[in-house]
Amino acid sequence: MRKRFADPMFQGLAVAALALLMALASVSWLTVVSSSRLLFPELAQTALAEASQGQGKIDAALDLGIPLDRVVGVDWLFASMKESDPDIAFLAITDGGKVLFSEGVTAATLVRLLASPPEPASAGLSSQQSLKDGHLVTELPLRSGAIHLGHHSDALFKPLADNLVDVGVIVLVSCLLAFEVMLLVVVLNVVQPARAVADALRVIAGGGAAALVDPRASGWVRALAVRLVRLLGTSSGGVKASPRSAPLVSVRLLAFLFVFAEELGRSFMPVYAGDIAAATSGLDANFATGVVVGLHMCMVAVAMPFATLLYTRLGRARLYAAGALIATAGLVGTGLADNYWSLLAWRAVSAFGYGATYVACQGFVIENTTSANRASGSAMMVGGITLADICGPAFGGVLAERFGQSETFIFAALVAALSAVVVAWLMAGSRRSPGERPRNVTLGDFAIALANRRLAVQVIFAAIPAKLLLTGFLYYLLPVTLIGDGWREADVGRILMVYGAVVLLGGPLLSRLTDRRQNHAVVVTLGLILSALPLLAAPLVPEALVLPAAIVMVAALGSGQAMSITAQTSMVVGMASEADVRHGHAPELTVMRFVERFGGGLGPMIAAPLGAHFGSVGAIAVFGVYACLSAMIYAGLTARWRASPSEVPR
Amino acid sequence: MRRREAISVLCAGAAGLLVGRRALAAGARRFRIVMVLWRGETEAEAGFRQELLALGVDADIEVRDLARDLTRLPDVVAEIRLLRPDLVYAWGTGVTLGLVGRWDKVDPVAHLTDVPVVFTMVSSPRGAGIEPPEGEPPRANVTGVSHIAPLPAQINAIRAFLPMERLGIVYNPAEANSLANLAELRALAPIARFQLLEAPVPTGTDGQPDATAIPDLVADLSRRQADILYIGPDSFVGANRDSLTAAGIEAGVPAFTATELEIRESQAMIGLVSRYATVGQLAAGKAEQILVEDTPPSAVPIETLKRFSYLIRLPVALRLGRYPSLQLIDYAEVIR
Fold first, then answer.
1. What is the domain class of B29-146+275-304 according to CATH?
2. pLDDT tens digit string along A24-82?
3. CA A216, CA A214: separation in Å to the nearest integer?
4. Pick from B132, B138, B33: which is nearest to B85 by CA?
5. Hey, where are the domains in chain B?
6. I need a labelling partner for B200 at 20 to 30 A (CA). Which of A73, A167, A257, B94 fits?
């Protein structure tokens, strides 16, 4: 039995099964909560209480001797009731069949609605309530006449639908996590041993059994090989156990975990920071919030060169573990911060951790790949990050709503701590190879890059606007606007999820399009315009269409970014000298990434004061205008490049 | 949320300590206060006494009531000089001016200059010249409390009830109080976008303002389409409040008042007023600062209240067919 527990295959399956089990447990729990809530009677009860509150106010006026048809302020009453309960559809006062006041609905519609036959209702409605024409109508008598309060009956089912969607998100995240773990387990325990066996057979077939003395395998394959060598009678002098080598695929899980931890807070971070800033900073709350969100990105950009320096000293595994632990501390601090300045400090700490783990993952890819398969190695890491981008905000939104925002940060800290444990397990005993390490951005790179006018155009009019849209709109203005409009953290999380999903699904398709069109500048322009155009319409969106409009904007942003990322990379690599590219390094690209990352941090800091001045919806439009203008200038400038294509490369 | 609660508990604790210390300090000494009143004790004095007790200020209070006769004031001043109290409490504009004079015309013989004076129920301390104009240093021994809401708040209060474009005012041009208030209204009119319709009360053959002219003045304002009559701090109009408000009701024009009597004891329809007791409490706070904390009166600001009561006299509203909105009914005090 114990042997079975020691079997890595069994362990992997157990972890995956446990993840699924947890997902299912959550599903059951949520379902139980939903059904036990007895939504219908509860909502009907609330509606009745609201109607009786209205009744009380009108009766108070009647008691003063004010005639029913001369009551002043029914519109105010409706507006104030609707403010506290957006599901209220109408408020009307009638006297003997005559409509005296009707708010939220025309008198004619009201008469028709009240006259329509009631729909069969489930239990839980009081005798004064009925379901008519898609509304829950509550009618209460006044001293004279009657008050009618209508709620949209769709609203009755909204909490149930919300619960189901939350369940879906949890199941999705659990399945993806289970998949990541399974993938790793299969590679570690099936694919690698199979390869080792195949290699061994090939060696034996070639008559070189002695070469098996130091097989490139561990665990049972290694034990088998050693026995085989003995059987074949070859002397096996001092077989040393080779360290377990973590397969490249493990970078997926590592990248997934550290990004996932950070993304959990994405959907509500501006609101969380805003509350603390308003209470304790003494600064303009909008600006202070923008700084919190932006600082994280700037700090990541700044932390990465430092992390690269540490890389040589610590090696990838210890750097990753250190980063993960620093991020753990940062996230715990973020969750417990009781004033603005400590929040700011803890965000900087977790940014440093994030930067360190990122560099460690990059290093892992570089050490485990050759220039031939480096692209697919990078794709592994990007795959993990993208999955985390998709799952993190949505899952974090659900957590924040169910358990609280501070608690979600604590959970994120646990995930970061888990990633430290995982890396310790995966890379136990792994030695750092002395060869390559992630390249650092150097002053020399800047010197080369600054001398390149085309790169300046690329960065100023394409890369930075695209990044500002991403961080200013997606990470700051969108959550602030939606939560300000009364949407839940989980709703915001799911909308942010759309971005990652579009990039993941649309990315390959759009980059193929880019490859077909050899004119990258046009693709970059189109991508930027596609991301920015829907934002221009932000101020025109009616309240009822806020959610679909937000989804369209985010999806357009995702497609636009997916289009331009590949094209921009190709263009910038094209600007580098051939010698540099052959050495696998383009200073122009390194510099662009650095400037982009740093510029990204400014997005929220710019968005916040704009939002304070124009309102957050206005600020979204301003961002749209800015990006469109940049795109046009970019198009104009790059059109001239085509006319004179041969700017001298250094 | 938990954080904020913890902070507020801490603050409350700190405040408790301070209050405790003050009470201890106050316990060490018994103060002597002279109250100079215009027409006997009102709710303001009750509020003042109650608040002093609550603040732990131990004081003997001696009352000097002028019974609406300012000629008695010199005797009271002389007596105060003999008694040498720790503080003088003055009620109303007339009494206060008599005790301390205008800021720019202080006569050390006639006025108190070395005893701290805290006034209450002064409608416009600056307009009456008790408080120096802006830019001048504050007076060494005078501070106090006004009972009138700021004018913009008064205009908002009127507009919460009815759309107002033309504001009619009957006033006594012989009263400094009234003229000061009128000047402020004139300045506010273009900013708050209303037209000020003025109706000064003419002087009768005896050289006094002619009260019999009031109904005609109101009827004239009604002809000029005044939406509402404004009653500010004007002793003459205050004394003739019944005649003014009745003429208004006759002409179908309601009245707004910034002082309590015109609505509690007469027929103004709406009022934005301060309770006398609350004004007295605020004055007690200032007295405590001077007596217990040894703050010089010049460092204690002259203030009005932060909150006022919105009053509606229902019978007048019903008679005029002007009904208060549901929102107003929610927070106003309705006098039936």
1. alpha beta
2. 777 767 765 665 456 677 778 888 999 999 999 999 999 999 999 999 999 999 999 98
3. 6
4. B33
5. 29-146+275-304, 151-273+309-335
6. B94
Provide the residue type at A28 as one letter: S
Instruction: State phi, psi for A526 to the nearest 5 degrees.
Output: -60, -40
| Residues across chain B | 336
What tokens does A466 get?
A: 């695209």
Closest CA to A42 of A105, A78, A87: A87
Tell me the CATH number for domain B151-273+309-335: 3.40.50.2300
The first and second tokens of residue A90, run together, are 């109408």
Contact by Cβ (8 Å): B88, B112: yes
Q: Which pair of tokens denotes residue A633?
A: 């200038």
Q: Do A73 and B325 touch (CB under 8 A)?
A: yes
Residue entry with tokens 């990465």:
A304
Cβ-Cβ contacts under 8 Å, A73 against chain B? 325-328
Q: Is the pTM of this model over 0.80?
A: no
Task: Decide whether B29-146+275-304 matches B151-273+309-335 in CATH topology.
Answer: yes
Q: Using alpha carbons only, what angle is made at residue B67 by residues B61 and B70, rounded to the nearest 5 degrees?
A: 100
Chain-chain contact of A61 with B329 (C-beta, under 8 angstroms): yes
CB-CB under 8 Å, B334 with A61: no
Cα–Cα distances in Å, from A273 out to A277, A337, A413?
Answer: 6, 10, 17
Residue A593 burial class via C-beta count within 10 angstroms: exposed 0-12, middle 13-18, buried 19 and up: middle
CB B9 within 8 A of CB B41: no
Whether chain B has a CB inside 8 Å of the CB on A71: the answer is: yes
Q: Which of A503-517, A578-592, A617-631, B119-133 has the lowest mean pLDDT?
A: A578-592
CA-closest candidate to residue A602, choices A500, A470, A484, A503: A470
Mark A256-280 as b/e (b = at least 16 C-beta within 10 Å).
bbbbbbbbbbbbbbbbbbbbbbbeb
Cross-chain CB nearest to B323 (options A57, A70, A279): A70
Contact yes or no for B327 and A70 at CB 8 A? no
Q: β-strand B255-257 against B303-304: which pairing, if any?
A: unpaired
**DSSP secondary structure letter of residue B312:** E
Interface predicted TM-score (ipTM) = 0.73
